[in-house]
Amino acid sequence: MEIKGSAVKSIPEFVKQNYPGQFDKWLSLLPESSKEIFEKPVLPSNWYSLNDAAVVPTQALAEALFDNNGKEGAWQSGRYSAEAALTGVYKFFVRAASPHFIIGKASKIFSTYYRPCDMHVLNKLDNTVTLHITDFEEPNELIEFRIAGWMEKALEISGSKNVQVQITKSLTKGDEVSEYVLKWE
Hints:
- This protein is of the alpha+beta class.
- It has helices spanning 5-18, 23-28, 32-38, 50-65, 70-85, 89-96, 99-113, 141-157, and strands spanning 2-4, 47-49, 114-115, 117-125, 128-136, 164-169, 178-183.
- It is built from 8 helices and 7 strands; from the N terminus they run βαααβααααβββαββ.
- The strands form 2 sheets. It has a 4-stranded antiparallel beta sheet with strand order 4-5-7-6, covered by helices on one side. A 3-stranded antiparallel beta sheet has the order 2-1-3.
- The longest helix is centred in the last third of the chain and has 17 residues, at 141-157.
């Protein structure tokens, strides 16, 4: 399974931006296969191994910066990734769009970040959306948390308040889908 460079690039940027004194510690925790990715510029248009470029670096991030709390590390990294992706001109469009529009687009965008990956909007209510990931060759809990953090921050950027994202089903736990339920005011 692969992840797009634009998503990979946000991981070391997150560490440098928020924990600049810990970057070398984080890098030292990576195996050689992951270090090689980050020792040269990550190209946004390239595809990288999901495990080497995202899973293992996120585990190291959790170990170095979040007292081994993988959920928190992945969630915060995902929030940063959304902030980095939705800046500049995109931020204007995100703020002008409805949360339903943002999540509808996000479901299409995720297949451009992960391959293979299929995400579908299951239902839309006034302030709630349910999404399913149905195709993800190498399900990983850290990646699920990272995606949840991304969605949470994207909704916040759109102006939504009291955003809640719950993962109610998970491919990593043997469910047929990973299900995200998003609620906001």
